[in-house]
Amino acid sequence: MADGQGGEALAGISTHPSFSGRPAMGRRPIRLRPPVPFVFDAPSVWQHPRPLVDVLATDYGHLDLEAMDGSYGWVIKYSQQAKFRALGIRTLGEYLRLFTGGVRDKPLPYVMHLSIRRNLPELLPDFVPLPEFRPNWATAAWLDRLAGPELFIGPAGSGFGPIHIDHASVHVGFYQFQGEKKFILFPPGDGRYLYRYRGAQFPYQLRNARPTGWNYTDVARFPRVSRASPVTLTLRAGQALFMPADWWHTTINLTDSVSYSIRIVNHTNVLKTLGHYLAGPGRAVLKAFGR
User: Fold this and answer.
1) Strands 239-243 and 38-41: what pairing?
2) Contact, 202 vs 156, CB < 8 A?
3) pTM: predicted TM-score of the whole model, two decimal places
4) How far apart are CA 235 and CA 168, in angstroms?
5) Fewest beta carbons within 10 Å, which of 10, 109, 148, 226?
């Protein structure tokens, strides 16, 4: 297992036997063959003159957390409602006051998949995707679930949870605004070792896994994972990560963390993306029969 940043993290990934030789450290990772995760220092994707968290707290603090949409709307609307209510948090501003205050009686929930387009549409022009995240053909408003972009805000110790791949073979670009986030990555071929199961949403891929970022090393519980080739890396403020399609991954926030992600479809993966959607109805039948 490798850990590091920049070239060190990439070196750890590139030693996996599925790759032939060390990949070039170019500025267009989506053109690499085969594509591999790529960490690099980058200018901020946030081009507004005021700090992002300040804008969210002062200009959008009135937004009701339970009414906010995620790119996967159910993530924010449903799975976190009980956690917000237990803490008496109703609005984004109340959450951010606790997030930035430093002293907390109880752990804060991890706000995930916060859709910029649906909740903060006026700010969309202020988020400028990096050249490494382009071209991206999935930028239309009706493709928000497919591509985003979105924000993740969470305290130290929080994490995404289950290992997974993003749907429909999209590439993913991440940018770290604040703090440090640990990524645990598995090459696409490791899915057979990760106790995967079919997703609940169309196109019903085998894209979810039973292990999480906290327990995947539990050999007694998940013995097959010992045959996988995980790589860990830490994304720090001012760094970006390009993650190619079908890489299994999960994250843990090592410190209080604010980050951005965007999913990418272009000439390198569009046929695979379309293929997943075409296969969706057949997979729905399999899912109905528990397969």
Assistant:
1) antiparallel
2) no
3) 0.88
4) 24
5) 226
